[in-house]
Amino acid sequence: MARNTERLHLTLERIRKLQPPSGNQATYAFDDDPKQLCVRITPAGAKSFVYAGKLNGTPLRITIGSTNVWNLDDAREAARRLQTQIDKGIDPREVEREKTAAKAAAIAAKEAERAAAEDKKQYTLESLCNAYCDHLKTRGKADSARQAGSILKVHVFEAFPDIASLPASEIDSDHAATLIRKVIEQGVGARLNLTTCAR
Length: 199
Fold this sequence. Notes:
4-stranded antiparallel β-sheet, alpha+beta, 4 strands, single chain, 3 domains, about 200 residues, Double Stranded RNA Binding Domain
């Protein structure tokens, strides 16, 4: 790793004046406190704060962030925090991987919740009953589909809109009993097996 031989007390002005290396390798300007903090300067002129220490005797380099984004004091604090982890025998890279995995898991869990909520909206009792009627049509039972649709519309969708809009997976025996009781009370000749729609 190419580096400046002189250790500096980094300041914003000194960082600004750091020049890109003449070769094709990055150079590093090291701070005096903490000694593990340095600024990496690439041949293209990009400057980043970097932690440069050792883990179990092996050199370890961890990029903290661009000098255009990170405050110098925050970068120093980040370098000290990384050194504290290493002093405790903790590999900061492993900690970061665990954080990334936990974040990904949290995002996946939220996405699963969102998808489940969308499914509930999509697969309501009404939508599945309509799908049941469509299924009858595809089997060549247009009259049965028409009759079922009429009964459902009058005695379920219009009579019990709150139940009809529930996710089908939440329809229980009490809901089914309420719907069927209504059909029977109205004296409808053809009895519709409403529980079929909720399956």
